[in-house]
Design brief:
Length: 408
């Protein structure tokens, strides 16, 4: 990530604060910088660190460990965005943290659009002036209970360029850091003024191409934001060797494979990256994933009118799934129209016929309710309206697209 370099001071009271110390987060490490090398180091982010890691940071700055617990409470419970707003902490500690290049890691909302159905899509402005999308989807269940799903992005743009996806049309910029993923969930909670109950990695980008940061974000969402693993879904269009790697972590979260076609030839036309990952290979990896984790793989299938939505396609899909195991579930997604796309949304009759053909062959299927059509809710749509390159800073154009105030 292109972070601004910060100058560090050397005024910390204890020698231990001058040492470099490594903390482990999932499979990676985060370093508290040596102040002697500080001018060469990027700033460092508190969001995403665990209770234990924050306590150790407090100790390294000559504070008692309970100051680390206060940090944890301020970041994850009170959701304070700036270090100088940590009023429970001594002013000297706050100043020391900032001088050493630490920051919370929250980003401002650049644009928000609310649909008639209550869905809200956000554009979050990152430190390098890139924009990333996230969507909050409120759902009322039949029993009267409510859920709030955050659909989060894992990359700025996407390099895989699936033919029906608006994100791919906007190009690819970079991977998101774990705190930038977690921040999307906190932004949704702040906007809706309620807890997020479900998280789906189905926003911009391919999560498996950013697995390290996605797994770190997953840990934080589960352990620190307290969202159950079974309430988290990681979606992939399929990247060679990554499903097997993900299985080794034995997560209790759902793996959703974006299939979109029942055979290799058609899949290659819809998903160009499928050429490097044959359908039989990806189905074998999904079967092995189930055997390793005992978690059923969900299959996502976007219905494109006249392309992959016929009864014959449904029959072929059912045969494919039965060939590679039992207990599969298919999520059918009627195409969400995007400007300039060659694809069309299928008719309701076609969707129902597709579902009937699957269910008559003992394949369970559900049709995903389309949300936020009037809020550019298809992945990548809203971002493409605003950005294909970093925002310019300090000019009237950026100011004209500042945060939209939303009624609670």
């Amino acid at each position: 990530m292109a972070m601004a370099l910060l100058q560090y001071g050397c005024s910390l009271p204890l020698a231990r604060a001058l040492r470099s110390r490594t903390f482990t987060v999932a499979s990676s490490s985060i370093r508290v910088p040596s102040l002697k090398k500080a001018s060469q180091m990027d700033s460092h982010v508190l969001l995403g660190l665990s209770d234990e890691q924050l306590q150790q940071i407090a100790l390294d700055f000559g504070q008692k460990s309970f100051r680390g617990k206060q940090l944890y409470h301020l970041i994850y419970k009170r959701k304070v965005k700036e270090i100088q707003e940590f009023s429970q902490l001594p002013l000297a500690f706050r100043s020391d943290l900032e001088e050493a290049g630490w920051r919370v890691g929250r980003s401002p909302i650049h644009k928000a659009v609310t649909a008639a159905d209550g869905t809200i899509k956000l554009l979050i402005k990152l430190e390098d002036n890139r924009l990333v999308e996230t969507v909050g989807i409120p759902v009322k269940d039949k029993d009267g209970s409510s859920r709030l799903t955050a659909c989060v992005s894992s990359q700025v743009g996407c390099p895989l360029r699936c033919s029906f996806c608006a994100t791919g049309k906007g190009g690819f910029s970079r991977n998101l850091k774990s705190h930038e993923i977690v921040d999307q969930v906190l932004a949704i909670e702040e906007l809706f003024k309620q807890r997020v109950t479900n998280v789906v990695f189905m926003g911009m980008g391919e999560p498996m191409l950013n697995m390290k940061e996605v797994l770190e974000a997953h840990r934080c969402l589960n352990k620190d934001i307290l969202i159950g693993q079974r309430m988290i879904t990681i979606s992939t269009v399929g990247v060679p060797n990554t499903i097997k790697k993900l299985a080794s972590y034995k997560l209790q979260s759902t793996l959703a494979l974006s299939l979109h076609a029942p055979n290799q030839n058609l899949r290659e036309k819809i998903v160009p990256s499928a050429k490097s990952y044959p359908l039989n290979a990806i189905m074998k990896d999904c079967r092995d994933y189930f055997l390793e984790t005992r978690r059923r793989v969900s299959f996502e299938y976007t219905l494109l009118a006249g392309v992959n939505d016929s009864v014959e396609h449904a029959i072929e899909l059912a045969e494919l799934l039965h060939e590679w195991g039992r207990g599969h579930h298919v999520n059918l997604i009627p195409f969400n129209p995007i400007e300039g796309s060659e694809y069309k949304r299928p008719s309701k009759r076609s969707v129902l016929a597709f579902v009937s053909a699957l269910e008559s062959r003992k394949v369970t299927a559900s049709v995903r309710q389309t949300r936020g059509l009037d809020a550019s809710a298809a992945c990548g749509q809203l971002r493409n309206e605003f950005q294909k390159s970093p925002l310019l800073t300090g000019n009237a154009i950026e100011e004209s697209h500042s945060v939209v105030a939303l009624a609670s």
